């Protein structure tokens, strides 16, 4: 049982595509729990497969895939599989955990709480969820879909990393998050938002896009 | 191979291709930062999105990969690449041991001047540490925590928080720095703090102001979380913490919420402290600028603490949350209300009811279900029919159905018809878990019992309808336990219907032919309730069924009928005498343990009672409590059952031992309580109880406790010649029993306890009765 005062709030952040396949996923637990799992798997190569039942979801890939399948199914059942049915942020309770999700174009963003749902502050969860989506929205110039996320995977992963550190909400304010993300540069020297600050974020993106043409 | 396919291959996400690409690109000199970051991001994607339980890279591959990545550390002054390197290192840290080698490079980055990647470096650092190396990070963490930069401080605090799991020693040393951070206001500027302000011209100042985004001081939240964990066992420390960080002085809303939770913790530990936190709660409820989740948290806490004076404002605030646009506000508020609405008085409940009614038609199933549940709980339920119809239309999950059925069970007396319809529907629905169906059956049984107790009047035809639906249900039910409980209902209440009950018999009998033995057994019991019609059926079953239990039940039923419907065991004895049951249980346990299944002597059990009035009672011991003697620990008085339990168990066990030692004693007639024979202060505390037999023999059970601090050997009582009785070794504070036939004891004023200690034979005399 996680104490309500614990900083560990979030157990997973997922982005699934329209087929329910992973675009992005992070399952959170204390990093040393993960490391223990690794140590054990060194002694027993079958560790993750054999003990998959008792393992925390963050350690068992098998459980993760199952979870993704089930929650995707559940969302589809509740809100229809057509991605255009709802664009709002929605909330479901799944296996006694609160899951906040939103359909954005062909993607489904899902954020799941750690503790049993009674203990969790739902509004806080939604705020950190919005922190991530709004940051992405700003960084990707409003175009969030599988293609843009895949080609900007570095930005996506940095945004998530700067928002949640192994289950602890690190930052929920989108401006503060973006402020921490470095953009990529062609040449040696770094170019980050500093140098182009006067032009505002939109032009920052435009600037980055020219530099970062794929 | 055309150029096109080549390109495709080159860009493929195959793990080996990426692996090779990484090795070559990272070893180039100079490296191409952009290319490297793209490769790293592909690598990262590969690792996290893999769905197989096998690691993506073999240990060797991981090692060479890691060494290539560590080459990127040599590439200074490219923060965008370095930031991504840290991300990958964090991910690799749970996959490879070599990662420890990066410690030095990471530490170097942390020590260098403030830069944008410093927080990333700090967060990577703890992931390359283990419990033995954790201490080395202490100094770095300390200086980072007190950094004036919010992000650096946050990173260090969160990292320390993770570190708690493996090395709380390290974290304890950080407590002063942590406390300092709790209410300090830091600036969250990504710019190096060492730029002197005078050098800035106007344009640059503007630029800096643009970058100085609204600072939300998240480090306050993180330091509170860490401080709580470090002090959670120290009540005074927590009090000090909360005094230090009055929510009005802390300006991060996450931190404010944490303070509210902390105050709840304090009141939970010591309810007298409630006065201290009331101002906080009041502030949180009234604060106009406060964030919604603070309002929510305050409402949760007030309801949890059942702090009445604030109920009306809580209701007001929850109404506000219900009408908020955000889905989580609505959900949280309605869930909270549904859980605690029984606390509200009628007018408050009514007030909030109207707002909740709007939510019944919400697109979110969870919200609408909680709304309906709440209305069912608080409502005078004039509209209960329409609510239940909405429920039927809503395709809701089992968990919610269970919640709803719980609240319906309280209303079932007022609206039996509507609710029973709903219950039967959920029972008959093909989907639905075992738990859910059992819940429904619970509810139905409740309905029928209330009817029987005349607390509720159901019409005969209604009952027949319900029972007939249940008959249909048992035709097609996959859960054995649900099925047998429904059969019980049919038997119990079907037999009481005045009209022709043969239809129920027919349905129950069908199960006999079709189901497993558990269901057949319950069906037999149910059939027995219809004595006039089912005798021949039972006879048939008692002869032909393949299962022992089923045949036995049929036989017993038939046999008891022959005894003019006298039940086998007298009801009053079973129901009213819990001591009897305990004794029966102990006796049965013993019977099973013995493995001798020839005879079981039922009537003997209740005859054994502890008797205080034995003639040789030593007067002054009359008043002490049996329990104290029994196991030495003072359970609080008033637990008669367990005393009786232990008593009968003790009697049975001792009697068994006695039988092994002495034969021809006959039947046990009486057992006395333990009497103390020595003072509490003597070297041996000896107690004695007396077993009387109908052959007029008596056996004494001496309980001897060694209070000396050394072991004694060969403890014996004079007169005894049986080898088995001699206690070869009695350790300090150990208790033993010696069983002696009274006739063997030497007559006279003293009994003599002999033992050998330190090679000396000692004699211990004590008064006989």
List the main descriptive attributes of the protein structure presented here:
heterodimer, A: 214 residues, alpha+beta, Beta-Lactamase, five-stranded antiparallel β-sheet, two-stranded antiparallel ribbon, 8 helices, 18% strand, globular, B: 769 residues, Immunoglobulin-like, four-stranded antiparallel β-sheet, 8% strand, extended, disordered N terminus
Describe the overall structure.
The complex is a heterodimer of chains A (214) and B (769). Chain A is α+β, with helices and mostly antiparallel strands and 214 residues long. Chain A has 2 domains: 14-181, Beta-Lactamase, CATH 3.30.450.60; 183-214, no CATH class. Helix content of chain A is 42%, strand content 18%. Chain A has 8 helices and 7 strands. Chain A has helices spanning 31-43, 47-50, 61-79, 122-139, 146-151, 153-163, 174-179, 200-211, and strands at 10-16, 22-27, 89-94, 97-104, 107-113, 164-165, 168-169. Chain A has a 5-stranded antiparallel beta sheet, sandwiched between helices. The longest helix of chain A has 19 residues, at 61-79. With 769 residues, chain B is of the alpha+beta class. In chain B, helix 19 runs parallel beside helix 21 and helix 24 (416-428) runs antiparallel to helix 25 (434-452). Chain B is extended. Among the domains of chain B are: 381-567, Leucine-rich Repeat Variant (Alpha Horseshoe); 573-607, no CATH class; 619-767, Immunoglobulin-like, CATH 2.60.40. In chain B, strands 1, 2, 3, 4, 5 and 8 form a 6-stranded mixed beta sheet that branches. At the A-B interface, strand 2, helix 1, helix 3, strand 3 and helix 4 of A face helix 3, helix 5, helix 7, helix 9 and helix 12 of B.
